[in-house]
């Protein structure tokens, strides 16, 4: 089966011991808490898409960011691989506001609502919270079962 890749972004916003998550009101991942992001559109760089999606979904304007991970998601019997570029938003302006897609809320990092998040988050958030840079791969069967995964630290990530 020939595979195709879809590029997506995910912006992580942390302030000290708190992390900002958004409750997805509609679309893919509806009913889950997640970082802020979406598809990279035609003619856009991954960085531009990260900034646009963060503003659209949370109202925050990214001023400095650092790529921390690339996550690959494959779904059994689905030729589309999701390649999610994860950025730590180091500096931003504005206050979180509810959007059409997301309801933002701060959570203490030791009380992240993993039971209402993607299963894979439980695996890679701890790496992110440690400050590591990494690549990870997840093979899902449906949306609620991970058949296989790998996670490996890296020194550098491509922009
Ligand atoms: N498994 C998993 N864990 C953590 N985060 C994610 C996943 N799968 C994902 O797709 N994501 C992230 C990556 C993106 O940030 C969003 C999905 O974006 P989506 O809502 O599909 O993209 P938009 O461009 O905003 O969508 P529409 O506006 O076209 O509906 O979840």
Automatic annotation (TrEMBL):
InterPro entries: 8ODP (IPR003563), NUDIX_hydrolase-like_dom_sf (IPR015797), NUDIX_hydrolase_dom (IPR000086). GO terms for cellular component: cytoplasm. Gene3D superfamilies: Nucleoside Triphosphate Pyrophosphohydrolase (3.90.79.10). Its EC number is 3.6.1.56. The keyword Metal-binding applies. It is an enzyme of class 3 (hydrolase). It catalyses: 8-oxo-dATP + H2O = 8-oxo-dAMP + diphosphate + H(+); 2-oxo-ATP + H2O = 2-oxo-AMP + diphosphate + H(+); O(6)-methyl-dGTP + H2O = O(6)-methyl-dGMP + diphosphate + H(+); 8-oxo-dGTP + H2O = 8-oxo-dGMP + diphosphate + H(+). One of its GO terms (molecular function) is metal ion binding. Pfam families: NUDIX. Keywords: Hydrolase, Magnesium, Metal-binding. GO terms for biological process: DNA protection. Residues 4-136 form the Nudix hydrolase domain. Its cofactor is Mg(2+). Monomer. Oxidized purine nucleoside triphosphate hydrolase which is a prominent sanitizer of the oxidized nucleotide pool. Catalyzes the hydrolysis of 2-oxo-dATP (2-hydroxy-dATP) into 2-oxo-dAMP. Also has a significant hydrolase activity toward 2-oxo-ATP, 8-oxo-dGTP and 8-oxo-dATP. Through the hydrolysis of oxidized purine nucleoside triphosphates, prevents their incorporation into DNA and the subsequent transversions A:T to C:G and G:C to T:A. Also catalyzes the hydrolysis of methylated purine nucleoside triphosphate preventing their integration into DNA. Belongs to the Nudix hydrolase family. PANTHER family: 7,8-DIHYDRO-8-OXOGUANINE TRIPHOSPHATASE, OXIDIZED PURINE NUCLEOSIDE TRIPHOSPHATE HYDROLASE. This is Oxidized purine nucleoside triphosphate hydrolase. It comes from Diploptera punctata.
């Amino acid at each position: 089966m020939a595979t195709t890749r879809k590029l997506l972004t995910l912006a992580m916003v942390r302030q000290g011991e708190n992390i900002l998550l958004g409750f997805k009101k509609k679309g893919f991942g509806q009913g889950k808490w997640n970082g802020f992001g979406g598809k990279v559109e035609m003619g856009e760089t991954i960085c531009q898409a990260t900034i646009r999606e963060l503003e659209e979904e949370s109202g925050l304007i990214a001023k400095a960011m650092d790529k921390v991970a690339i996550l690959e998601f494959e779904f059994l019997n689905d030729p589309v691989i999701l390649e999610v570029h994860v950025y730590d938003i180091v500096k931003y302006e504005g206050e979180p506001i509810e959007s059409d897609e997301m309801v933002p809320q701060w959570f203490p990092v030791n009380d992240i609502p993993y039971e209402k998040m993607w299963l894979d988050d439980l695996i890679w958030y701890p790496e992110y919270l440690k400050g590591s840079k990494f690549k990870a791969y997840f093979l899902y069967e449906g949306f609620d079962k991970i058949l296989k995964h790998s996670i490996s630290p890296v020194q550098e990530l491509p922009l």
